[in-house]
Design a protein that fits this description.
single chain; alpha+beta; GMP Synthetase, Chain A, domain 3; 2 domains; three-stranded antiparallel sheet; 8 helices; S-AdoMet_synthetase; methionine adenosyltransferase activity
Length: 310
């Protein structure tokens, strides 16, 4: 057997600009590329993620669990999920889930199983264990394998890959996205590391009660150490007496968005990325990466309450 290695190193010009070919301290490392990155959090679920995305991701994971443990023997590896949730907006700007409007599951199956069996098993073993009863009613719509036969899956069923599913990796369409994918990039690429840091900041703000939901945006230029911009949008859900500008100042005081400092603070050189390549990079209470461990902002909360009482 002959192994041909066609992998090439990154341009030394990029390496020199970003990390001085390994000679720069964390505080001196520049961004590995330009771009805008976003982090989002909402208090509608325990993991501070949008319910619609959380349910869709958990349904996908449940498909894998039931396939691998043999609970549903006709399941095959390919599949997709999607959940539509009806919301109302609270008086403080928060999003309140009212009901699940539609559940869509398309999953590959063995040739011999009937559509009736597929429908029954998906309801019993996939949906019921995952979707809380209080969100389901007689008007909830279920599209379970709506295309009918789905025996051919994976690369045999479709030609090529059209993208890296960056919305599935993040917040299911909530918040915003700068367009950069995560998987396949090391942590000098701010597409990945700064998106993690922005989620860390957003989740910490919401967990502390400084806002009900939050979008944190940061942008970079290649080789430049300091972010070009930092922006916070609480959608009108900030603690009484606080503005989005106040929240942005809190983020600046408590989080270091220099790329090398993100690497250090979030332990991004630690082997951990493989398990993040499926079921999303955020809200992962099963893995609890560093960006999901909220930072203590109690001093900021106390200061905000002190200002409000004056």
């Amino acid at each position: 057997m002959e192994v041909i290695n066609k992998l090439e190193e990154q341009s030394p010009e990029i390496g020199q600009s970003v990390h001085g070919l390994g000679t720069k301290a964390p505080e001196e490392i520049g961004a590995g590329d330009q771009g805008h990155m976003f982090g989002y959090a909402s208090n509608e679920t325990p993991e501070l993620m949008p319910l619609s995305h959380s349910l869709a991701t958990k349904l996908g994971h449940q498909l894998t669990v039931c396939r691998k443990n043999g609970t549903v023997k006709w399941l095959r590896p390919d599949g997709k999920t999607q959940v539509t949730v009806e919301y109302k907006k609270g008086t403080s700007g928060e999003m309140i889930p009212v009901r699940v409007h539609t559940i869509l599951i398309s999953t590959q199956h063995s040739p011999e199983v009937s559509q009736e069996q597929i429908h029954a098993d998906l309801m019993e073993y996939i949906i019921k264990p995952i979707v809380p009863k209080q969100y389901l009613d007689e008007d909830t719509i279920y599209h379970l394998n709506p295309s009918k036969a789905f025996t051919i899956g994976g690369p045999h069923g479709d030609a090529g890959l059209t993208g890296r599913k960056i919305i599935i990796d993040t917040y299911g369409g909530w918040g915003a996205h700068g367009g950069g994918a995560f998987s396949g990039k090391d942590s000098t690429k701010v597409d990945r590391s700064a998106a993690y840091a922005a989620r860390w900041a957003a989740k910490s703000l919401v967990h502390a009660g400084l806002c009900q939901r939050c979008l944190v945006q940061v942008s970079y230029a290649i080789g430049v150490v300091q972010p070009l911009s930092l922006f916070v949008d609480s959608y009108g859900s900030a603690m009484p007496g606080l503005t989005d500008e106040d929240l942005c100042d809190i983020v600046k005081r408590n989080f270091d968005f220099r790329p090398g400092c993100i690497q250090r603070d979030l332990e991004l050189k630690k082997p951990q990325f493989q398990k993040l390549a499926a079921y999303g990079h955020f809200g992962r209470d099963d893995l609890m990466p560093a960006w999901e461990v909220v930072k203590d902002l109690e001093d900021e909360v106390a200061e905000a309450k002190k200002k409000l009482s004056k």
